[in-house]
Amino acid sequence: MISYIKGTLAEKTPARLVVEAYGLGYEILVPLSSYDTFGEEGSEVLVYTHFHVREDSHQLFGFATKKERRLFDMLISVSGIGPRSALTILSGVSVDDFCGAIAREEASFLTAISGIGRKTAERLIVELKGRVSEIEVDVGDGTGVISAQDAMSEAVRALMALGFTRPAARRAVEKCVDAAEGDVGIEELIRGALRHT
Question: Does 74 lie in the same domain as 126?
Fold first, then answer.
């Protein structure tokens, strides 16, 4: 198995990277969440990888963090979720948000991700609920205190209910968090995000 590749970023498109290491160019399929974190072409990168072998193809999937790779491995272990579906899920939601939705059994959150229907969302919850604790994320504890990550997730969901796409809502909330000084509540995040759009 190839655990990671460290080398020069030779090519970069939203769905794939080519990393040159020791004279070889490795084509690596990546989710949008990872794509955004890699630098410009010509920069040095470290890509955590998963080598997927099938009868008709050999593909290398890459991630910016070990958490993303761990969640990818968990997702492809679920019946009906292949590597492409797992990439789509990772492109549409952060690891923390996804694991939080699984831990809280929020099927409606999962069905908002492209390609996940009700039955798939329920299967993901059943098969991954006991395993998401293996990934070190803040999934919230269900008490009255809400984490910053949960507040961001709630604000994104509220903006989506107002008609925003998930990426646009997430960008607006992140701008609001960056502009804020100190902790910000859900209502302030929503109001601030609406001002930033």
Answer: yes
